């Protein structure tokens, strides 16, 4: 039996000529991926910090070449780290324990949603997983508005990559992550919490369970974490007050 399989390539993110990260990723939506990773890794704080982005096919994969303004590039060099990781490994290559667990800036408290919004968003993300339906081999991340209407779905062999692509889409579209919430197909590890907080998103919902450190980090940052979303049921792990009618923990 023939089976469709997803593409997987090495994708380098370089900053002013120096490699920052080499990730194994699905080679699609690479412009969003480069911007999203740069934002979530705190290389830049806004799209305008990038003077240009060149995406070039190279032997074995792709090179996404970000060029920053000189002053910002100098600050980047001072904190540069080299990270080479397997599929979507969001912390591989961190050079210290401090880098692996950066301080999380507490989130605001703007978002209020109905429980049905989570169910709706998860169903719409599933329906939008074109590559996933063909291959059964990729993760998905999506952003939904406060009513649960999905605005974008991105797929990748790495769950962290999929979330970076959504972050890039939001930034390029000029959208605020705290106007809605994130949904994902994966388990929730601490790296996903860190990325959601970097995006300033107040709620993350996922189909699977969290790790202990993910729970701790979500609590510290004030992120509402919804897990084990199955049909119309789910568990609220942290900060339930953003969901109408949810009991206190």
From TrEMBL:
PANTHER family: FORMATE DEHYDROGENASE, SULFUR CARRIER PROTEIN FDHD
Family matches, as InterPro entries: Cytidine_deaminase-like (IPR016193), FdhD (IPR003786)
GO BP annotations listed: Mo-molybdopterin cofactor biosynthetic process
Gene that produces this protein: fdhD
Organism ancestry: Bacteria, Pseudomonadati, Pseudomonadota, Alphaproteobacteria, Hyphomicrobiales
Active site (record annotation): 89 (cysteine persulfide intermediate)
Top-level taxon in the UniProt lineage: Bacteria
UniProt GO molecular function: sulfur carrier activity; sulfurtransferase activity
Keywords, alphabetical: Cytoplasm, Molybdenum cofactor biosynthesis
Protein location: Cytoplasm
Function of the molecule: Required for formate dehydrogenase (FDH) activity. Acts as a sulfur carrier protein that transfers sulfur from IscS to the molybdenum cofactor prior to its insertion into FDH.
HAMAP family attached to this UniProt entry: FdhD
Protein name stated in the entry: Sulfur carrier protein FdhD
Family statement: Belongs to the FdhD family.
A single Gene Ontology CC term: cytoplasm
């Amino acid at each position: 039996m023939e089976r469709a399989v997803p593409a997987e390539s090495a994708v380098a993110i370089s900053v002013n000529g120096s490699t920052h990260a080499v990730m194994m990723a699905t080679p699609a939506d690479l412009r969003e991926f480069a911007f999203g990773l740069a934002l979530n890794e705190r290389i830049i704080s806004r799209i305008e910090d990038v003077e240009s982005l060149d995406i070039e096919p190279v032997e074995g994969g792709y090179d996404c070449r970000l060029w920053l303004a000189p002053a910002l590039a100098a600050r980047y060099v001072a904190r540069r780290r080299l990270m080479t990781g397997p599929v979507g490994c969001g912390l591989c290559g961190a050079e210290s324990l401090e880098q692996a667990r950066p301080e999380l800036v507490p989130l605001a408290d703007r978002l209020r949603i109905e429980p049905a919004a989570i169910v709706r968003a998860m169903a719409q993300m599933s329906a939008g997983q074109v590559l996933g339906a063909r291959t059964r081999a990729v993760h998905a991340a999506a952003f939904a508005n406060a009513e649960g209407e999905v605005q974008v779905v991105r797929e990748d062999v790495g769950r962290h990559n999929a979330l970076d692509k959504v972050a890039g889409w939001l930034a390029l579209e000029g959208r605020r992550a705290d106007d809605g919430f994130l949904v994902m197909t994966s388990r929730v590890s601490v790296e996903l919490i860190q990325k959601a907080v970097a995006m300033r998103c107040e709620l993350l919902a996922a189909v699977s369970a969290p790790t202990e450190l993910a729970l701790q980090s979500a609590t510290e940052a004030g992120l509402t974490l919804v897990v084990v979303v199955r049909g119309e049921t789910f568990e609220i792990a942290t900060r339930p007050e953003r969901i109408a009618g949810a009991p206190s923990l």
